[in-house]
Amino acid sequence: MKDTKQKNIAELERLAKEVLRLKSEREQRRPLLIEFCGSPKSGKSTTINSLNIFLKRNGFKTILLTERASICPIENKIHPFFNIWTLSSAVAEIIKNIDLGKDKIDIIISDRGLFDSLCWFEWLNTNPSKSTPYLDNQAYNTLKDFVLMDILSDYLDLIYVFKVSPEISIKREYANLLTEKRGSIMTESILDSYNISIDETLKKYKNRYREVQEIRTDTEETDDNPNKVSYNVTLNILHTLKNLLIEKIGYVEISDITSYKLTSENIFKEQLKFGNRDKVESENYLQIIPIAVITNPERTKVLVVKKSDKRTSSDSAEKDKLLLYIGGHIRIEDKTQAKAKETLKIIKKALKREIQEEIGESLSIQDSQPFLIYSRSNEKSKKHLAVCFVIEMDLEDKKFKLTSDEFIMKTGTTKSGQIFRITDLINDTSNKYEAWSAKIIKEVFKAKLPIIDFGEEI
User: Fold this and answer.
1) Which end of the chain is less congested by CB atoms within 10 angstroms, N or C?
2) Domains plus CATH for the chain?
3) Which among 318, 178, 334 is positioned nearest to 247, based on CA atoms?
4) Can you tell me the distance from the alpha carbon of 330 to that of 164, in angstroms, rounded to the nearest whole number?
5) Residue 248 — φ and ψ, nearest 5°?
6) Distance between CA 72 and CA 387 in Å, rounded?
């Protein structure tokens, strides 16, 4: 047993070093958000404590959001107000810590939170009976829809749902207590009905989240063996963080791009595939890149950015150029809640995420119709297809804060992160543009640059 434990520790520490190495080489866009929820006395707290200690002692910056139910001021635990309060409090804590940014936190561990609230709202909607529940259907649907909003659920990377039988919950609860009087929740009937609500919630909403794992802690292998559970959870979290850092990006596999008719209709019918970024970029796949042009309603002004040297390779068409767009690759997490061929939905979701990550704004892409930009200006450009959306907004006195280290920040004389009149940009002959920005100047702003052969196809 001791040898097995040492072997497990060595494996976890090796993987932790690998993840930290990747993290030092690549940008972690935001903290990883993990939620633990499930049956009372199922081993969540023990696992969370073990996980948090391991991560901190192996170089990760973590923050633990404690269970809100333990500090809820509402005395009646089966009143809807109790779970509405715990949900609101959990959402506030999650938003606050997500907003702290990647430089301060690597992993946020939430002891109960969004998915937990879905389980309890399900229970309140079906107990004490379906005909006279604590929470009526209208209130249940409103609260459920709030929890499932993309703006919240998209940030939840991993959910661990711990399950244990009511008998084991009771046994563990009272093992070290000098009373056998039951609490308001710790009764066999309520625990049994709550487990049913967990199962029902998993059946209804599991596919709405990126990854949900169920863990039983009352099996022969896991009962009275918390180290086994903690090891499995820690291993899974390190692999998840590693995959996020490696980054799987979206592409379409088109055998002959020269004869393929590049139209929005054709592209949106294609099924997106995902692969490790390094491998995809080395193959002859067509990478779909959602981008956004931020302009005013009159289309006389535009947000301009410029990539930093450390984020652009020597053969990149964007190197040392002014860009009239923001955006980037589709990542595998963007396909959450989208069906296999809902390519346009995935594209819009990816762009919303990119906008949030790059300029810190929450801008939804709804009715805007995109157009395609494709260039053969170099070998790298041939593998990228831009899906360009135009976002019109009031830019008078508007200031953007670049929140990604991809860009040169708005300091000194740089134009990056500032808003300019199109006429001023065009008249300044010192400005350099790549093919996508040149196409945007022509299509969006109906203006002309000096004649330059960018090898445009569309």
Assistant:
1) N
2) 2-246 (3.40.50.300), 249-443 (3.90.79.10)
3) 334
4) 38
5) -100, 125
6) 47
pTM of this structure: 0.84
Report whether pLDDT(25) > 90: no
Higher pLDDT, 430 or 144: 144
- 168-211 pLDDT per residue, tens: 888 887 777 666 666 667 788 899 999 999 999 999 999 999 88
Q: Is residue 445 a contact partner of residue 299, using CB atoms and an 8 Å limit?
A: yes
- Per the CB < 8 A criterion, the answer to whether 268 and 344 are in contact is yes
Task: Give the separation between CA 208 and CA 211, rounded to whole angstroms.
Answer: 9
Distance (Å, rounded) from C-alpha 305 to C-alpha 311?
A: 13
Binned at pLDDT 50, 70 and 90, residue 298 comes out as very high
Residue with structure tokens 């009937």?
189
User: Given CA atoms 309, 314, 319, 320 in this order, what sign does their dihedral have?
Assistant: positive
Give the chain's largest Cα–Cα span.
Answer: 86
The pLDDT assigned to 408 comes to: 75
Q: Which residue has the tokens 């199922």?
A: 42
Distance CA 388, CA 368 (A): 10
- Residue 401 burial by Cβ neighbours in a 10 Å radius (0-12, 13-18, 19+): exposed
Helix (H) or strand (E) holding 359: helix 343-359
Is the C-alpha dihedral spanning 223, 227, 230, 235 positive or negative?
negative
Q: What is the mean pLDDT of the chain?
A: 87
* CA separation, residue 79 to residues 116, 122, 183 (Å): 16, 13, 15
The per-residue pLDDT for 241 is 83
E strand residue ranges, 228-344 = 248-252, 273-276, 286-295, 301-304, 326-327
Question: What's the Rg (C-alpha) of the chain?
Answer: 26
Strand partners, 214: 161
Instruction: Show the tokens assigned to 223.
Output: 């009962």
What are the Cα distances from residue 151, in Å, to 66, 128, 332, 356, 364? 22, 32, 17, 11, 10
Q: How many residues does the chain have?
A: 458
CA within 13 Å, CB half, 156: 31
208: nearest Cα among 247, 150, 162, 160 = 150
User: CA nearest 325: which of 280, 285, 371?
Assistant: 371
Helix, strand, coil abundance in the chain, percent, nearest 5 = 40, 15, 40
Two structure tokens written together for 205: 């909403």
